[in-house]
Amino acid sequence: MDETRRAILRWMSGVMEARGWSAGAWARLAGVTATNLTRFLRDPVMGSVPSADTLARLARIAGSEPRFLDEHAYPPVSRVPVLTLDQAHIFLDLGRRAGEMFLAGALRDGTASIAMGGTASPRAFAMRIVSKSLNAAGVLPQDCVVLEPLDVLAPQAGDVVVTVGDGTVCGYRFFPPQLLPVSTDPDCHPTRIDCAHVAGVAVQVVRSLRA
After folding, report:
1. 36, 87, 114, 185 — which has fewest CB within 10 A?
2. What is the rounded distance in angstroms from the CA atom of residue 8 to the CA atom of residue 172?
3. Residue 79, by phi and psi: left (phi above 0), alpha (psi -120 to 50) or beta?
4. Which of 22, 42, 74 is the last residue of a domain?
5. Does residue 211 lie within any of the structural domains?
């Protein structure tokens, strides 16, 4: 098997295993014909390779793409959608599988996204901070924070977590039983964990230097 076919097979198999998708389910989400996948998966040595358009559609849904380059020299990259506050509330109310499909659909529909070095879970997403609750810790309003939900990554003392409320997206340090701001804003106060809607644990912060 040549290296191109090997890379596509490794990627497709890895995505389906990680997401729990069949070839048919992935094809439906991406809006492609399932036989484009199954012909190749049944016979990756001689079967027809999916077209560039098909691979692009599959990649947008998966949030990743085949790795044709040496992974030691060029680490893999995955993408996570940047959710609005309304989208985040919808996602957090969904079950695990439905939530993953919601995020995949957001990527397919062209929602803004962030490229992450390394791998992210199928449930990772990003949000824009809108408060000054962590400005003294270097997390500023309009920063994009990549989050792993609590069912993927349990927070530990000192971790940055993000809460969602009515019109607010705030960051705090996790110090049970409270969430503590690190802020120059005197209006930012500690809040009890059991009174907050924690969206996830922050794993990466992305900041645009120009609008």
Report:
1. 185
2. 41
3. beta
4. 74
5. no
Quote the CA–CA distance of 164 and 91 in Å, as a whole number.
Answer: 12
Q: What is the pTM of this model?
A: 0.70
Tens of pLDDT, residues 17-29: 878 889 999 999 8
* pLDDT tens-place string over residues 70-91: 655 555 667 899 999 999 999 9
What total of structural domains would you count in the chain?
2
Question: Domain of 12: which CATH number?
Answer: 1.10.260.40
Are residues 152 and 161 in contact, defined by beta-carbon separation less than 8 angstroms? no
Length of the chain: 211
Is the N-terminal amide bond of 177 cis, ω within 30° of 0?
Answer: yes
DSSP 102-154: HHHHHHHTT--EEEEES---TT-EEEE--SSTTGGGT--TT-EEEEE-TTTS-
What are all long-range contacts of 51-55, with beta carbons under 8 Å and residues at least 24 apart?
Answer: 54/30, 55/8
Q: Are residues 23 and 46 in the same domain?
A: yes
